[in-house]
Write a structure and sequence with these properties.
By secondary structure, the protein is α/β, with parallel strands linked by helices. 28% of the residues lie in helices and 20% in strands. It has a single domain, classed as Alpha-Beta Barrel (TIM Barrel). Helix 1 crosses helix 2 (77-89). The radius of gyration is 17 Å and the shape is globular. The two termini are 29 Å apart.
């Protein structure tokens, strides 16, 4: 089965690995007692370019993921449609989590294992309450990015830390999109030194080809195993960032839909472990991206 090549150190992408596995270059087959989950991705139900069917097909044919979570912005429609498709087609080799990326007043929050939509525009504390009320898990998405307006900042994270009854269940310490470049390393350090909530990695894929570029390693292989690992705080982020092709595909989609003018697509140079990764993007291409 073909596997995604995102995350190879040799192609200029960071490869993060936690102590859960012995070495980042150990073949995946050596880790079969652990699974891989991408718990952050989008479909055409919000601002992704792939339909739920296309997302499922890419996860099946081009990744080794055991679990995926579809987390469209402020809607469950994409995840529920994907579940219907899986029910109609029969068992897949991976399992699906119903999720949502909630737009709280303080920033984006991933809601996993939910069945009812969490409305946008609430405080992050109230959003966490509503997620927990229905048995879901709350993960702060791409925190500490100082230039991304949907990123939860340190003051808010510290506010949550002071409220044990409102702690999130995890922190996304590796985000594969531009929202995670630079801030992922900050998030990892803060998670391990200060917050000590479960760590997750997610592609934040807005194009199907980005799925799996960043993921979460966990003990076991199933959705239930992932949930248990998150609650036990034994998960680990692994992977890297989108390729430039993903940024360009997203930009072309936004331009075609009238969401951004071609002249607004900038080309910054980002340094990743001493190697240059050129990615054409802008804040306007992102919109709610993240």
């Amino acid at each position: 089965m073909p596997t995604t090549q995102h995350g190879d150190v040799g192609d200029g992408h960071l490869f993060y690995e936690h102590a859960l596995s012995p070495h980042p270059h150990t073949p995946l087959a050596a880790h079969r007692r652990t699974g891989l989950a991408d718990v952050h991705m989008h479909t055409t139900a919000s601002d992704g370019t792939g339909t739920p069917a296309e997302v499922l097909a890419f996860a099946r044919d081009h990744t080794n993921l055991d679990v995926i979570a579809i987390t469209d912005h402020d809607t469950l429609d994409g995840a529920l449609r994907a579940r219907d498709l899986l029910a109609a087609s029969g068992p897949e080799r991976f399992e699906l989590i119903i999720g949502e990326e909630v737009s709280t007043r303080e920033g984006h929050l991933l809601a996993l294992f939910i069945e009812r939509r969490i409305p946008p525009g609430l405080s992050i504390e109230r959003s966490i309450e509503l997620i927990h009320e229905q048995g879901g898990l709350a993960v702060v998405a791409h925190p500490f990015n100082r230039v991304f307006r949907h990123s939860v900042q340190r003051a808010v994270m510290n506010r949550l830390l002071r409220q044990p009854g409102l702690h999130p269940d995890g922190i996304e310490t590796l985000n594969g999109s531009f929202a995670g470049i630079g801030s992922s390393r900050v998030a990892m350090t803060a998670a391990r030194r200060v917050y000590r909530w479960a760590e997750t990695g997610g592609s934040d894929a807005h194009t199907p080809t980005a799925i799996g570029c960043a993921s979460t390693r966990f003990v076991g292989r199933t959705v239930d195993d992932l949930r248990a690992s998150l609650l036990a705080r034994t998960t680990a982020p692994v992977g890297g960032f989108w390729h430039a092709a993903e940024y360009m595909a997203l930009a072309r989609s936004r331009i075609a839909s009238g969401g951004v003018a071609a002249s607004r697509v900038a080309a910054p140079r980002v340094r990743v472990r001493g190697q240059a990764l050129r990615a054409r993007l802008s804040a306007r291409v992102g919109g709610r991206l993240g």
